[in-house]
């Protein structure tokens, strides 16, 4: 359990960085690079960014917060695959999204330790 006195493992720092980058990517992607044409921007940002901010409530325990984000990132992985496959103009954004989600889930998996016994 991570508390204020326990140092954060480097692998979790990578996961937290990937999480932050995923939030920034969603903001840049949907608010600046490819703004929505048929939906209000606030609705698109609520759908894409808000779920990534919910695990902040568990940030006191970085491992738990990353677990929540890891589960949520499966949606973003699927979205990245769909965009990379179907939208040539946004393919690079989809590939960045895929990379960040794989990095995040990989960091979470790499941080798992087995109990000896």
UniProtKB/TrEMBL annotation:
Coiled coil: none
Domain of life where this protein originates: Bacteria
Keyword list, A-Z: Membrane, Transmembrane, Transmembrane helix
InterPro entries cross-referenced by the UniProt entry: DUF2069_membrane (IPR018643)
Transmembrane portions of the chain: 12-33, 39-59, 66-86, 92-112
UniProt cross-references to Pfam families, sorted A to Z: DUF2069
Protein name per Swiss-Prot or TrEMBL: DUF2069 domain-containing protein
Protein species of origin: Dyella ginsengisoli
């Amino acid at each position: 359990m991570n508390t204020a006195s326990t140092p954060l493992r480097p692998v979790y720092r990578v996961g937290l960085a990937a999480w932050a980058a995923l939030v920034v990517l969603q903001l840049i992607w949907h608010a600046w690079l490819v703004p929505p044409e048929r939906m209000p921007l606030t609705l698109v940002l609520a759908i894409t960014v808000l779920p990534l901010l919910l695990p902040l409530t568990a940030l006191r325990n970085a491992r738990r917060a990353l677990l929540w984000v890891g589960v949520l990132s499966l949606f973003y992985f699927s979205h990245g695959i769909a965009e990379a496959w179907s939208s040539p103009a946004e393919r690079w954004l989809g590939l960045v999204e895929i990379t960040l989600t794989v990095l995040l889930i990989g960091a979470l998996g790499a941080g798992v330790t087995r109990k000896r016994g």
